[in-house]
Amino acid sequence: MIEVQQLTKKFGDTLAVDDLSFTVKPGIVTGFLGPNGSGKSTTMRLILGLNSPTSGQALVNGKRFAELDSPLREVGALLDAKALHPGRSARNHLRSLAISNRIPVTRVDEVLDIVGLSEVANRRAGDFSLGMSQRLGIAAALLGDPSILMFDEPINGLDPEGIRWVRDFFQQLADEGRTVLVSSHLMSEMALTAEHFIIIGRGKLITEGTKEELAKSAVGTVHLRTPNRELFKDLIATKQWEAREEADSFVLEGVPANTIGDEAFAAGIVLHELSTREVSLEDAFMALTESSVEYTGRRNRKGAQK
Amino acid sequence: MKSIGLIPAIRSEFLKLRTLRSSWLGFSITAGLTIGFGALISYVSKTHYETMSFAEKATFDPIQISLVGTLFAQFAVGVIGAMLITSEFVSGSIRTTLAAVPSRMTVLVAKAAVLKVSVLVVGVVSCFTAFFLGQTIMNGVGIPTASLSNGNTLRAVALAGLYLMLLALLGFGLGLIIRQTAGTISAFVSLLLVLPLIAYLLPSSWRNEILRYLPSSLGRAMMSSPGTIYEFPLFSPWAATGILVGYVILAIGIGAYLFERRDV
After folding, report:
1. Chain B residues within 8 A of A66 when measuring between CB atoms
2. Scanning every residue of chain B, which has its alpha carbon at the shortest distance from the alpha carbon of A53?
3. What does the alpha-carbon distance between residue A16 and residue B232 come to, in Å, rounded to a whole number?
4. Burial class of A56 by CB neighbour count within 10 A (0 to 12, 13 to 18, 19+)
5. Which of A203, A239, B85, B182 is in the most buried spot, having the most CB atoms within 10 Å?
6. Per the domain annotation, does B246 fall within a domain?
7. Minimal Cα–Cα distance from A221 to chain B, Å?
8. What pLDDT score was predicted for residue A305?
9. What's chain A's average pLDDT?
C-alpha cells in the first residue's frame, strides 16, 4: 500500500507536485498517468525519499520510506533504467544492491533469470540497450521480493515481445497480492496494463478510477441526421443542448441518444440516423489532461471551430 | 535515523569499488606514479650528484627524492576520491543507491570508509616501495641515503601514504559539494596547483604565511626531514597532518550537510 497525502513539492517557484493525495492498493496494477512534466517522476522520488516534500507526506506500508528497516525487501523501484554505473556488469550491479540489504547473493541469479538477462549478466551495463536496461531495472526492483513495486515508464524502449512480457508480469505480481504502480504518459499503453488509473496534470490529481469509470466520465457524442433541420435547431435552442451543425448532420455532446430521440419524437421531428459514438480511453485521457499539458505542439484540433 | 546498518553498506560500497575497471586503473596509476617517478628522480639524482653545487648537496634529501612521485600521485587519488561520489551523481545511480540504503549518512560513511582504507593501503605500500627502491638506486657512490631505522624517516614515508589518503578524502568532500566530475577535478587541481601560483604573486610577508597552509605545502611538511631548508617555513610534520585533517573534515562536513538536505 502506498499512501500519498497532500503531497506538495516546489522547485523554486515551480509547483511540481500540488497537494496530491491518492492511495495505491495491493492486488491490482495501478497506472500512474499524466503528460510529460506532470510530476509523475517527482512524485515517485518523493515516495522514495529522494526528494523531500515541501509539505505533506508519502507512506509505504504505513511508514515513511526512510524508516524502513530493509527498504529493498519492502519497496522495489525502477526510476530510471540508465541510472547505474555504465562500467559495472549487470550481475555486479545487482550484487552490490543485494549485499546492501543483506539479501542472499543467490537471489541475483534468480532475478536475472526472471527478466531474461542471465546470458548477458557479465556484460557492462553501459552497453545494454534501453530495453535491456529496463529489464535490469526490473530485476533490481525484484531483488528483495518486495510487496510494493514502482516502475517509472518501464515500457519505454522495450520491443513488442518485451512489452507483452512486462504486462503479463506486472499482472502476475499484482495477482500475488503486491502493490504495483506503473507510470506512463501513454494511455494507449496503460489501458492494457493497468486496472486502476491515477491521472495527474501539472502536479494535481485530475481523476482516478477504473477503466469503466474513466470512460464514463468522458462524454460520448451523438450523431444525428434529420430532414427537418430547422425544427431540430429550434429544439436544440429550447433544450440548450451543446451541439454543432455539420454538412448533413448534427453532433451533440453530453446528451444521451434516447433523450434526444424522445424529444425529437415529441416535437414531431423525423430522424434518419441517431447514433452514439463511444470515446476511447485514450480520448478520455486526452480530454482530461488537455488543459494541463506542459508542452504543446501546433496542431489542428478536432472540434476547434466550435 | 534508522537504517539497515553500516556493515552491509560498507560491503556494498567495497564491491562497487572493486568491480569497476576505472578503480583498478586509478590505483595502478597511483602506485605507478609514486614508484615510477621516485625511481626516475632517484636515478637522475644519482647520476648528477657529482655535478651538484655545494648548496644543492647540503640540502640533498634522499627521502624527499624517493617520494617525489607523490606530487603526481596526489592528483590520481584526488580523482579517485572525487569520482567515487560524482560518478553516482552524474549517472543518476545515487538514486538507486539511496533507494536501497535511504540513510544518506550511512552511504556517506560507507563510501568514505572504503575510500580511506583502499587509498591508505595503496598509498602506504606505494610510498614504502618507492622509498626502498629509491634508496637502493642511490646507494653507493657517496650519496647520502636514508634508512627506516631512523624514526624521522619512518614517519616521513608513512605520512606520505597518509597524505595520499587525505587528498583522496579531500577530493571526495569536494565531489560531495560540487557533484560534478569536471568541476570537482578543476577545484581539486586549483587547490593544489593554482593557489600556490597566486600565493607567489603576493608580498613575501603574506606569501610565506599563506603558502604553508596550502595542501601541497602541508604534504611537503609531512614528508620533510629535520634540518632541511625550504624556501618558506613549513609546519612541523604532525601539525601539518592535523591541519590537513582539518581541511578534510571541513570539506566532507560541508558535503555531508548538503548531501543530507539536497534532493537527488
Report:
1. 1-2, 102-103
2. B263
3. 56
4. middle
5. B85
6. yes
7. 46
8. 39
9. 91
Q: What is the pLDDT of residues B166-211, one digit of tens each?
A: 999 999 999 999 999 999 999 999 999 999 999 989 998 889 889 9
Does residue B50 lie within any of the structural domains? yes
* Residue A118: alpha-carbon gap to chain centroid: 30
Interface confidence, given as ipTM, is 0.91
* Whether the predicted pLDDT of B118 surpasses 70: yes
Burial code of A226-260, b = ≥16 C-beta within 10 A, e = fewer?
bebeeebeebbeeeebebeeeeeebbbeebebeeb
Answer whether residue B1 is part of any domain: no
Closest CA–CA distance from residue A205 to any residue of chain B (Å): 23
On whether any CB of chain B is under 8 Å from the CB of A95, the answer is yes
pLDDT in tens, A49-92: 999 999 999 999 999 999 999 999 999 999 999 999 999 999 99
Domain total in chain B: 1
Cell of A227: 430532414
pTM of the prediction?
A: 0.87
The pLDDT, as a whole number, for residue B262 is 95
Cα A248 to Cα A109: distance, rounded to the nearest angstrom = 65
Name the minimum distance, in Å, from the CA of B260 to any CA of chain A: 10
Whether B67 maps to a domain, the answer reads yes
